[in-house]
Amino acid sequence: MSIDYSQRIPNNVNLSDNKRLQRALEAWQPRYIDWWRELGPDGYQDIDVYLRTAVSVDTGGWAHFDYVKMPDYRWGIFLAEPEQDRQIGFGEHKGKPVWQDVPGEYRSTLRRLIVTQGDTEPASVEQQRLLGKTCPSMYDLRNLFQVNVEEGRHLWAMVYLLDAHFGRDGREEAEEMLDRHSGDPDKPRILGAFNEATPDWLSFYMFTYFTDRDGKYQLASLAESAFDPLSRTCRFMLTEEAHHMFVGETGVGRVVRRTCELMKEHDLDDPADVREHGGIDFGTLQRYINFHYSVSADLFGSEISTNAANYYTAGLKGRYHETRIDDDHLLAENEFELQSFEDRRRVVLRTSELTALNQRLRDDFTKDCQRGLDRWNKIIEEHDLDYELRLPDQAFHRQIGAFSEGCFTPEGTLVSDSIWRQNKDSWLPTEEDFAFVASLMKPVTEPGKMANWIAPPARGINGNPVDFEYVRLA
Ligand SMILES: [Fe+2]
Ligand SMILES: [Fe+2]
Q1: How many Å lie between the centroid of ligand 2 and the Cα of residue 222?
Q2: Ligand 1 centre from 472 Cα, in Å?
Q3: What 3-state DSSP class applies to 227?
Q4: Dist. CA 13–CA 8, nearest whole Å
Q5: For residue range 456-465, what is the model confidence (pLDDT) as tens digits?
Q6: Distance from residue 143's CA to the centre of ligand 1 (Å)
Q7: Which residue has the higher pLDDT, 1 or 101?
Q8: Among 281, 339, 340, 464, which is least packed, fewest CB within 10 Å?
Q9: Whole-prediction pTM value?
Q10: How far is residue 58 from each of residues 48, 307, 339, 354, 383, measured CA to CA in Å?
Q11: What Rg do the C-alpha atoms of the chain give, in angstroms?
């Protein structure tokens, strides 16, 4: 299934055969470009950036790299190959053929799922729009823009589904995707984490590590959907998403490495002293981790959720790697153990797995998050330094779910409001932390040069050296 680039909207869905749909998307396209120019990367619209563009949806070799001015990026509609005779893998329709059209009874639920996912995509572009001005290197600047154009494409992916399968309602939703804006007091983005600012590059790496990883788990569970166009869309989006999390993991890892190097070079025992040498101390890193993990954990929703159970039973949203799980895929009989907070006490609940699917997905996410922490700690260990970065307990700093009813330390101990207030500044980034990190954010624009607070990457992009001219500023 090759992608047709001769069309105004590149696609592999034979868009030219469906004139109504083609017209709807072509009418939306100029509004999208206006949005991109206005709320996309600030100040870099007319320069050449070395970007990858999807040219096929094959697992091997799907991308083409070249210089492109971002507004000319070929945003398009790419679905993964259909799976022959694919059957619904779970829920009450299990074993029946997957749907190519939306069943009437699930129309509004599916629309809401698609809109909620779609809304996050342009939100992150808006959140990151000022970061280019303070890039730590040309390599990083390019990666930021790569993430941004692909989040833009993910919006296209969701808008395609809305326009193709939800008629007039879908078209209205597509318009509203560009009307809501991150942090807008009147028309905010749908989910909390997507209205937070991404004020500096450390926040950007944390966001792409933790929040894009929430995206991975949401997309992976939608990739199991009985609604086949959604499944195929999400499967291809996951291919792109992997790079975003790579940017986050290696970004934080490089900050950790540089901090270690500075501590060694200046023979520092107290990690806090690294600030004097222009590095980001472990304490600040830990507070950023605490913030971004907890905000991203909220995105999975309440521990116990009948909505999640209904999505599953209907076949709309599966578990992570549903088809690899060996059970009846109905879950009515499965028990699930989870932690909760009742009558001001932490409790362990045994409940039906069906109602605990949000928590199950959050658990999968948390395990995945820990892998990066392990790699970052290994860097610290390799430098013979005694410090360990940790994921906070799932109860810490939650705004959604049972734990939002109490105050908990990063270790998960219930504390009073006053203890929380007294200690909050050692658990979450403070104004002073943000100001310090902001003070380090000075643009580095010479190819191959890195800001002092971050180590160079192990290698460049697409086989190019680290000092390749990834962005042509001129
Ligand atoms: Fe995305
Ligand atoms: Fe992403």
Answers
A1: 15
A2: 26
A3: strand
A4: 13
A5: 999 999 999 9
A6: 14
A7: 101
A8: 464
A9: 0.97
A10: 27, 34, 41, 34, 41
A11: 23
